[in-house]
């Protein structure tokens, strides 16, 4: 039985309402650091593999678990947060200040739309989530800890639960509703399992307990 624990990073400065200059390098708050150590201490035993997003808040959260289990392999996967707003125009803005841009993006409901040179489309984002699931399926490790972001975690859960046949405007609207209703708190997440010889993943909500900050970053 392959088991994957998907964990959202600890509270970041953006989660706490601060302005951010670089979406990939938002630091953890003191509370987020405490949450990272709490997550590390929640492991009853060492996983076979530790994976993190390249974004600093996820890597910083993972490092507490890496320090606890220094002999466990540690890898970086492209499971960073959905960058649907062009990062250059978001410099020095807060979550509240970006709200109207967020609403405009989701009102458009165009899965192929790209907001700028460094942004990605919804199609790109879901393709990353699908590639991540495939990579986990092929990996020899059976017990994997993954430190990522709320939207990535919910993209995986949505793909498992809803099994969309097409990623079109209706699927995009459905995912947005799913993500809002199933918001992942800092330190929360899901457990994915896949029995041997079974091609399908299953997701459990056992990790959805409220831990700390519950506001999204965008």
UniProtKB/TrEMBL annotation:
Keyword flag Transcription regulation: no
Alphabetized Pfam families for the sequence: His_Phos_1
Segments of this protein annotated with the region Disordered: 1-20, 189-218
GO molecular function: kinase activity; phosphatase activity
Gene3D superfamilies: Phosphoglycerate mutase-like
Keyword Isomerase: yes
Keyword terms: Glycolysis, Isomerase, Kinase, Transferase
Residue spans of biased composition, Basic and acidic residues class: 195-218
CC terms in the record's Gene Ontology section: cytoplasm
Top-rank taxon, per record: Bacteria
SUPFAM superfamilies: Phosphoglycerate mutase-like
InterPro entries named in the record: His_Pase_superF_clade-1, His_PPase_superfam, PG/BPGM_mutase_AS, PGM_Phosphatase
Signal peptide: none
Protein name per its UniProtKB record: Phosphoglycerate kinase
Organism of provenance: Pseudomonas fluorescens
